[in-house]
Design a protein that fits this description.
Glycerol-3-phosphate (1)-acyltransferase, seven-stranded mixed beta sheet, about 15% strand, two-stranded antiparallel sheet, about 40% helix, alpha/beta
C-alpha cells in the first residue's frame, strides 16, 4: 500500500518574496520564479517536511539524516560535558547540513537545546522548539534579542556558528570570516563553558565561484545563498566528519585579551581540530 502524506507548502519562494518585497515580485517574470524554486529544491524540501510532519525536534533531525542517508564520523564524542549548560561553537562550511548535524549530536546527548540560527529556519515547524532565531542580514528585532537573553539564562545547551554566515573561499582557502565576539561575552555572563567543534569539508566549487564573481563585480546581495539547499542535497549518501574538542572553561576568557580577540582564539582552536588527521 502506497504511503500518503500531507501537502502543506511549508516553503513557498513566491509567497516569501511577495511578503518581503511585493514590488520585486511584480517585476520578476514567472519563469524566473520557477527557476528559483528549482534551485532551492522547493518541491523536494516540501515533500520531506510533509513526510515527517509529525516528527518534532530530535526525532525530526534523526529522520532527515536517515532520509539523506548521511553517515556521521564523529571524533571526540567523549568530550561532550555532562554539564549541559554550555555553548557549542563550530565553523560553518555547509550552511544547512552542519547545522542539522550539530543540533542532532547535541540533542542525542542532552535532549533539549537551543540553536542560535537564521530566522529562516522558523519556516520549518518541526525545528521551532530548538531554534533561537536571529536575523543575520537585517539585524535582530527587540523581540528576538529579548528571547535570546531568556535563552542564555536557561539550563540548556546552546549551539552556535559564531561567524554568523557560511564559510567562503579567502586567499584560496575555505574558511569562516572572523568570529563575532558575542558568544564569548555570553559565555562569561551566563557561565557557560565552550565546546569547540570542527566540520571537515566544503561546499561545491560553484558556490564559491558565484561568491567570487559577485565580489569582483561589487554585487552586495548574497546570491550564492540560494544554492545552500542544493548543497544540502549534494550531501545525500555522503559521510560528514566532525571533530569535537575538549570544553574550554568560561573562566579562561580573562582580561588578558578582548572578547573579540578571545573569539578569534577559539576560532583558531576549532581550525586546529580540523588539521588533526586520523591514524
Amino acid at each position: 500500500m502506497e504511503e500518503t502524506y500531507q501537502n502543506i507548502k511549508y516553503i513557498d519562494i513566491e509567497k516569501t518574496i511577495g511578503e518581503r518585497n511585493s514590488g520585486l515580485l511584480k517585476k520578476l517574470p514567472a519563469f524566473v520564479i520557477k527557476i528559483m524554486t528549482r534551485i532551492i529544491h522547493q518541491d523536494e524540501i516540501n515533500y520531506i517536511l510533509n513526510k515527517y510532519s509529525n516528527d518534532i525536534g530530535a526525532d525530526f533531525l534523526e529522520k532527515v539524516i536517515k532520509e539523506f542517508n548521511i553517515k556521521l564520523d564523529i571524533e571526540g564524542i567523549e568530550n561532550l560535558p555532562e554539564d549541559k549548560k554550555c555553548f557549542f561553537a563550530a565553523n560553518h562550511p555547509f550552511g544547512i547540513a552542519d547545522g542539522l548535524v550539530m543540533t542532532y549530536i547535541v540533542s542525542q546527548k542532552y535532549g533539549s537545546l537551543k540553536a542560535i540560527a537564521n530566522d529562516a529556519f522558523m519556516f520549518i515547524p518541526q525545528l521551532r522548539p530548538f531554534v533561537a532565531a536571529v536575523n543575520v542580514f537585517d539585524g535582530s528585532s527587540k523581540e528576538y534579542i529579548q528571547k535570546l537573553e531568556e535563552t542564555y539564562k536557561q539550563d540548556i545547551p546552546i549551539t552556535h556558528f559564531p561567524a554568523g554566515i557560511v564559510s567562503r573561499r579567502h586567499n584560496g582557502k575555505v574558511q569562516d570570516l572572523p568570529w563575532q565576539k558575542s558568544f564569548i561575552s555570553k559565555a562569561i555572563s551566563s557561565k557557560r563553558d565552550i565546546v569547540p567543534l570542527h566540520f571537515h569539508g566544503t561546499n561545491s566549487n560553484l558556490f564559491y565561484l558565484i561568491h567570487t564573481v559577485r565580489t569582483i563585480f561589487g554585487i552586495e546581495a548574497n546570491i550564492e545563498l540560494m544554492l545552500l539547499p542544493r548543497e544540502m542535497f549534494r550531501k545525500r549518501n555522503k559521510t560528514i566528519r566532525v571533530t569535537i574538542g575538549k570544553p574550554i572553561p568560561y573562566k579562561t576568557f580573562d582580561k588578558s585579551m578582548t572578547h573579540l580577540e578571545w573569539a578569534q582564539n577559539v576560532r583558531a582552536q576549532v581550525y586546529r581540530l580540523g588539521e588533526k588527521q586520523k591514524n
